[in-house]
Amino acid sequence: MSEFGALSVIFDLDGTLVDSEPNYYEAGRRLLAQYGVTGFGWERHTDFIGISTRETLETLREEYGIDAPVAELLAGKNRHYLELARTGTEVFPQMRAFVELLHSDGVAMAVASGSSRAAIDAVLDGTGLGAFIPTVVSADEVPRGKPAPDVFLEAARRLGAAPADCVVLEDATPGVAAARAAGMRCVAVPYIAATAVDPVFASADLLYAGGQRDFRARAAYDWLRSLKP
């Protein structure tokens, strides 16, 4: 067993481990343009950070009066996203360092994301993170996406860990709320630093209010070690 005992770490993917939001935005913009929707901007995209792709498309479908079924929209967005993701997805450097530190100590890790399984696998394979984090759960594999706790509880089940022994890393309020609902500790690293004042982020056990610019792998690692009984 790791020197961290039974502690397991569950990562959100997009905006937490990797800066994939620009690719998701561009994939959504291209998709909507196919259905005659123009003017979909970055600001509107940020309203959906932390929400599953399916739920995002359900909302946009209704908002813009798109007749196509959600399954068609989902397939289209995933196709656009995979094209973009394969050309390059940036891993936040301190997050990569954090993953490598945990891996070296034998800490069990998982990714629990609102993205499709194909999108998650493409990013993990393309960035090399999959070699460190083999356990993956997509929101498509559980009944409800974040802020419901389902994806985190399923990750814990696959890791063989009790929820109380899990620490979640998240960048968005739906994910923080999901972690709390799952009975897990949470480290919040807001993707959009200006949102750090949201009361939901205040419920995190550790908050990096400046987002990725404040996150340091060694400091987070030392904090985790302090949790060991």
Automatic annotation (TrEMBL):
Top-level taxon: Bacteria
Entries under Pfam families matching the protein: HAD_2
InterPro entries named among the record's database cross-references: HAD-like_sf, HAD-SF_hydro_IA, HAD_2, HAD_sf, PGP-like_dom2
NCBIfam families for the chain: HAD-SF-IA-v3
Protein name: HAD family phosphatase
